[in-house]
Design brief:
Length: 213
């Protein structure tokens, strides 16, 4: 009687790749720091060209050189739509290349059954990293807005008088959008303050055309 041969298949632990996944996410965050985006409200807008890369590998793309060319073409189209002549810096180019190379390399050496989970770790982990950074940046800007108003008005009472609205506390003020500011002749003091603040942050608010009386 033959002795039965048993084979124990040990499941692949995709979580053992956490350090590699974390580095990939860091590289993509570095790359995206120079990518203009029209909106960061949605996941699609926040991820920028990297979202296209994720879709590519989910669809079976594994050739890093081919994918890099594709993503750079997407990046060029984005910059063209914003009329930005400045090209991607060498540092961000290298970060993008590392992220793509490492992702393709990990997929090559992991079982096919683990690919979806691995890609999701990169995809949603990166989304979390970007959303967290965005939240932190907004709070930093909000504090800068509060300081701008404190320095100009000194007290909530003077700010309330200038804006013709009740401001109970500087700390409760929200960060206004650039679109809420205006330098037009008929702009309110609040609109003028918003425009001045965003210009102090290195952005500009367009002068609205005056309506004829």
């Amino acid at each position: 009687m033959r002795t039965p041969i048993t084979v124990q298949i040990k499941p692949f632990d995709v979580h053992a790749l956490q350090a590699d996944v974390a580095q990939i996410r860091t590289d993509f965050v570095s790359y995206l720091s120079e990518v203009p985006r029209k909106s960061k409200e949605s996941k699609h807008g926040l991820m920028g060209p990297v979202g296209k890369f994720i879709a590519r590998v989910k669809g079976g793309g594994r050739n890093p050189d081919q994918i890099k060319g594709y993503i750079l073409n997407v990046d060029r189209a984005v910059r063209s739509s914003f009329r930005i002549a400045k090209k991607l810096s060498p540092q961000c180019m290298e970060a993008l290349e590392r992220g793509i190379n490492k992702t393709c390399e990990l997929l090559e050496r992991t079982p096919l059954t683990a690919h979806d989970e691995l890609i999701d770790q990169i995809d949603y982990g990166l989304y979390f990293d970007l959303r967290k950074a965005e939240t932190v940046q907004k709070e930093v800007r909000r504090q800068a807005w509060i300081k701008f108003l404190r320095d100009k008005y000194g007290s909530e009472a003077k700010l309330s008088e200038a804006w013709s609205e009740e401001v109970s506390s500087f700390d409760d003020l929200y960060l206004p959008r650039k679109a809420e500011g205006s330098k037009a002749r008929k702009a309110t003091v609040k609109q003028q303050d918003i425009a001045a603040f965003w210009e102090s942050q290195g952005t500009t608010v367009e002068l609205e055309e005056e309506e004829e009386d």
